[in-house]
């Protein structure tokens, strides 16, 4: 079958013939690159100024090795490409070449005005030709009085007005022509006027549509005449002008805008008036700025493509786009670009990697430049890493080999590229690489294994989406084909855990659960210890109650019913310092079998709720002089 030519035509040349014709010639592509029988050639051409816009290009098909392009614009630079075609399709385009058509005589000026300036003068103004067809060298302004021959007046090309003076009363006709190096063009329409001493307010400028480039300066003309001098008022988008440093009215009446911005686009009107009349001129200003980016979204995806949806910006009319540039790259890859027409709603990026993440954004461009980028969109082609097969389906064990059924390893939707096969004896530290380039499909046999031996097999499967690793433990058969008993502790090896168990054993799940359990246990221990400390003093008091009661009763009996010194002196509490707590007991009083704190507790009439003994840190006064507990209460 034939294919498209893989090389462009050679030695492409262009020659300008006239103001509207160009000849293009070339040599056929090399025979080895034709890839079939060349049926025809296509010449793609268009103005160089708008070459980026596919809508401005034309195509001419010819079977010969040269052609003449007719009907071109005069004095215009053209770009051309040539390609060969076969039954297999269009071939590669040649590099663009450029030729400019010749100059010609210009078209007529578009409009003419004649305005009274005084009793002997008239102002003539005009608009340049729509198609100058070359470089205008000068204008000729023709003045003709009634019943007289016309008189030409040469005016520089930079000037679009002329003052006719020293006129006599009567009617005058005026018309204008433009000239290039080729010659004088056609005359404009005729404007008539008569001099007068009454000069109404009039504007010599014309309604114009101005196009300004973003951030450049622009001047909107308002050339006015009148006696007395007219009042001039500018309105911007229907509202009176608010002068600023950037937008201001010049002394002659024109409006100057510095550093044109997008928001300056719109209508500007100049109003003049005096006691004899009024006049108005309206200009439309368009600002050529880099276009706004379209809104980018993903319409669909496949294993090797992404279909993008492009929605023009809401402000697209302010700065029309000539085309879009799609920027895309695979994650960790390099940026690539593709240009598409601005009228494209959807576009499919082909030949992408399967199961891969891509970053994408779009910029719009026009003759001014490239605008800002759209938001970055993240998308993924379909497909995943190859899933791990079951050991029973994937490996077949022999006495000295193991066979891998590679077809059992599914590709996850992305074509498999290769396998890496490694093995080692169970318990060994290092892996032995068998092969790192096993092709997918068919079977692969690992040889030279020892019979009746446990091994671990590690397989790494690769596709465009990534790779997956699986380890299989197996025991080779005995020389007679028998199986080997599992190693100690291997009773459950080889059994795959349920998916929910695997999910719980993932580090990102297991670690938070263990941390929560530890925190809970620590909290319970702290609470228990706190409660135990609070209850300890009460338990200790309860254990000594029987002993305290016996000592107390004996002391009361020796004092004769409790009418001793404590009662007479208003209680022992007033005579005592603080007592050390039970866990800080004083040395025992010689001849006694209980400590000072115990004596105080039972010889003084102090309730258990009121006692200070467990919290005091000072000794009782005078107790160490007494050896007998019964004398401890008898103070001198």
From TrEMBL:
Record-given protein name? Down syndrome cell adhesion molecule-like protein Dscam2
Cellular location(s): Membrane
The UniProt entry's GO CC annotations, sorted and at most eight, read: axon; plasma membrane
Q: Which SUPFAM superfamilies match?
A: Fibronectin type III (SSF49265), Immunoglobulin (SSF48726)
Q: Which PROSITE patterns match?
A: FN3 (PS50853), IG_LIKE (PS50835)
**Organism domain of life:** Eukaryota
Q: Where is the Ig-like domain?
A: 200-286
Q: Where are the transmembrane segments?
A: 509-532
Quote the Gene3D superfamilies the UniProt record gives.
Immunoglobulins
* Key word tRNA processing present: no
What keywords would UniProt list here? Answer: Cell adhesion, Disulfide bond, Immunoglobulin domain, Membrane, Repeat, Signal, Transmembrane, Transmembrane helix
- Give the lineage: Eukaryota, Metazoa, Ecdysozoa, Arthropoda, Hexapoda
Give the record's membrane topology.
Answer: Single-pass membrane protein
BP GO terms, sorted: axon guidance; central nervous system development; dendrite self-avoidance; homophilic cell adhesion via plasma membrane adhesion molecules
């Amino acid at each position: 079958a034939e294919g498209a030519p893989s090389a462009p035509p050679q030695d492409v040349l262009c020659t300008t013939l006239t103001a509207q014709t160009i000849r293009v010639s070339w040599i056929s592509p090399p025979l080895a690159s034709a890839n079939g029988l060349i049926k025809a050639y296509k010449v793609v051409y268009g103005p160089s100024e708008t070459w980026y816009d596919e809508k401005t290009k034309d195509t001419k098909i010819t079977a010969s090795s040269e052609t003449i392009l007719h009907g071109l614009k005069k004095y215009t630079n053209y770009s051309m490409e040539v390609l060969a075609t076969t039954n297999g399709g269009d071939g590669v385009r040649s590099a663009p070449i450029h030729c400019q058509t010749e100059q010609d005589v210009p078209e007529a000026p578009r409009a003419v005005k004649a305005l009274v300036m005084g009793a002997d003068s008239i102002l003539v103004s005009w608009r340049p030709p729509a198609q100058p067809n070359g470089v205008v060298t000068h204008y000729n302004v023709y003045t003709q009085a009634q019943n007289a021959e016309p008189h030409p007046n040469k005016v520089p090309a930079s000037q679009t007005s002329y003052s006719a003076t020293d006129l006599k009363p009567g009617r005058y006709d005026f018309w204008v022509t433009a000239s290039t190096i080729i010659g004088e063009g056609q005359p404009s329409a005729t404007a008539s006027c008569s001099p007068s001493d009454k000069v109404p307010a009039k504007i010599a400028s014309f309604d114009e549509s101005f196009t300004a480039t973003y951030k450049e300066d622009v001047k909107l003309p308002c050339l006015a005449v009148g006696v007395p001098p007219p009042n001039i008022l500018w309105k911007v988008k229907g509202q009176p002008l608010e002068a600023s440093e950037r937008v201001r009215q010049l002394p002659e009446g024109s409006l100057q805008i510095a550093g044109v911005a997008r928001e300056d686009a719109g209508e500007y009107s100049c109003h003049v008036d005096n006691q004899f009349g009024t006049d108005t001129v309206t200009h439309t200003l368009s600002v050529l700025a880099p276009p706004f980016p379209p809104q980018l979204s993903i319409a669909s995806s496949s294993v090797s493509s992404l279909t993008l949806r492009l929605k023009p910006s809401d402000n697209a009319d302010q700065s029309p786009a000539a085309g879009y540039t799609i920027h895309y790259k695979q994650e960790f890859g390099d940026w690539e670009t593709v240009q598409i027409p601005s009228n494209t709603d959807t576009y499919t990026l082909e030949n992408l990697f399967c199961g891969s993440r891509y970053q994408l954004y779009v910029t719009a461009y026009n003759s001014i430049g490239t605008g800002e980028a759209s938001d970055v969109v993240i998308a993924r082609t379909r497909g995943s890493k190859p899933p791990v097969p079951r050991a029973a389906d994937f490996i077949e064990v022999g006495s000295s080999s193991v066979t891998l059924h590679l077809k059992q390893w599914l590709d996850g939707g992305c074509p498999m590229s290769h396998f890496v096969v490694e093995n080692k004896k169970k318990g060994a530290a290092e892996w032995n690489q068998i092969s790192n380039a096993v092709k997918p499909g068919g079977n692969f046999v690992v040889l030279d294994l020892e019979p009746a031996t446990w091994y671990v097999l590690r397989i790494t499967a690769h596709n465009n989406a990534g790779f997956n690793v699986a380890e299989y433990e197996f025991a080779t058969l005995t020389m007679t084909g028998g199986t080997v008993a599992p190693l100690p502790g291997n009773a459950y090896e080889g059994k795959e855990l349920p998916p929910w168990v695997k999910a719980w054993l993932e580090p990102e799940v297991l670690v938070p659960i263990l941390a929560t359990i530890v925190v809970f246990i620590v909290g319970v221990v702290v609470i228990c210890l706190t409660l135990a400390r609070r209850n300890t003093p009460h338990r200790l008091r309860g254990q000594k109650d029987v002993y305290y009661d016996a000592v107390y009763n004996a002391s009361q009996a020796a004092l004769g019913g409790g009418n001793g010194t404590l009662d007479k002196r208003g209680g022992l509490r007033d005579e005592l310092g603080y007592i050390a707590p039970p866990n800080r007991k004083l040395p025992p009083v010689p001849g006694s079998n209980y400590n000072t704190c115990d004596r105080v507790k039972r010889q003084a009439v102090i309730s258990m709720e009121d006692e200070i003994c467990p919290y005091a840190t000072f000794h009782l006064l005078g107790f160490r002089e007494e050896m007998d507990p019964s004398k401890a209460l008898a103070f001198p």
